[in-house]
């Protein structure tokens, strides 16, 4: 892979989510695997002082920092609340804002407006095309998924994240998405090693993947052949 910053072959990890860890533990991860990690997504509650410390640590290792898991909740307060959220993230040092597109709190057409709002603040936009509705996975037809992704790219989204468990997002949909949108504009969430192994086998080391931090060494070995 190319040196960082990369547009393909990116590995993004999640910050504390199922367990808590602080800046010292993150520093240990980045000391051993920082050159392999491109992005860090924050999803958990923590103090602003700890958040700033962890963001600064990530930046020192050339890692961009993304929000995650909050954007769709903030949308319940309308556009004004979301704009304040974006400003707060910018002030804290975030580089990228993520938000779910399947949400019953706001009209889907407004997500294009939200993408432009994020870009106007000088941040990168990362819509998440989660195929999740009413507690169950629901797979729209391939045409709908592709058109939604293309609309977001047209609105200025930098990358689109997709839930990619292979029993949910079919392989033919993945192939069509990559063909129409481009490998550099997609990042696939791989919850298990068997999923990212499949992506590396079928699309090579340049595919962008979102994995648990504990899987980074295994993923890096696969990328290296």
TrEMBL record:
<comment type="similarity">
    <text>Belongs to the phosphosulfolactate synthase family.</text>
</comment>
<dbReference type="InterPro" id="IPR036112">
    <property type="entry name" value="ComA_synth_sf"/>
</dbReference>
<protein>
    <recommendedName>
        <fullName>Phosphosulfolactate synthase</fullName>
    </recommendedName>
</protein>
<dbReference type="Pfam" id="PF02679">
    <property type="entry name" value="ComA"/>
</dbReference>
<dbReference type="InterPro" id="IPR003830">
    <property type="entry name" value="ComA_synth"/>
</dbReference>
<dbReference type="InterPro" id="IPR013785">
    <property type="entry name" value="Aldolase_TIM"/>
</dbReference>
């Amino acid at each position: 892979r190319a040196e960082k910053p990369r547009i393909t072959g990116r590995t993004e990890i999640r910050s504390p989510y199922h367990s808590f860890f602080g800046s010292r533990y993150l520093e240990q991860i980045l000391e051993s695997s920082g050159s392999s990690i491109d992005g860090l997504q924050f999803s958990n509650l923590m103090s602003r002082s700890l958040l700033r410390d962890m963001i600064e640590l990530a930046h020192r290792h050339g890692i961009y920092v993304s929000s995650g898991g909050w954007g769709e909740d903030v949308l319940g307060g309308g556009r004004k609340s979301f704009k304040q959220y974006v400003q707060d993230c910018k002030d804290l040092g975030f580089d990228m804002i993520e938000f779910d597109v399947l949400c019953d709190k706001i009209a889907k057409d407004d997500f294009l407006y939200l993408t432009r709002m994020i870009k106007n603040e000088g941040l990168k936009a990362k819509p998440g095309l989660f195929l999740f509705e009413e507690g169950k996975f629901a797979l729209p037809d391939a045409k709908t998924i592709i058109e939604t992704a293309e609309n977001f790219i047209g609105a200025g989204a930098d990358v689109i994240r997709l839930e990619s468990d292979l029993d949910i997002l079919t392989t033919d949909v993945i192939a069509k998405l990559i063909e129409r949108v481009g490998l550099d504009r997609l990042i696939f969430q791989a919850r298990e090693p068997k999923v990212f192994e499949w992506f590396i086998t079928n699309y090579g080391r340049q595919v962008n993947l979102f994995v648990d931090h504990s899987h980074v060494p295994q993923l890096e070995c696969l990328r290296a052949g």
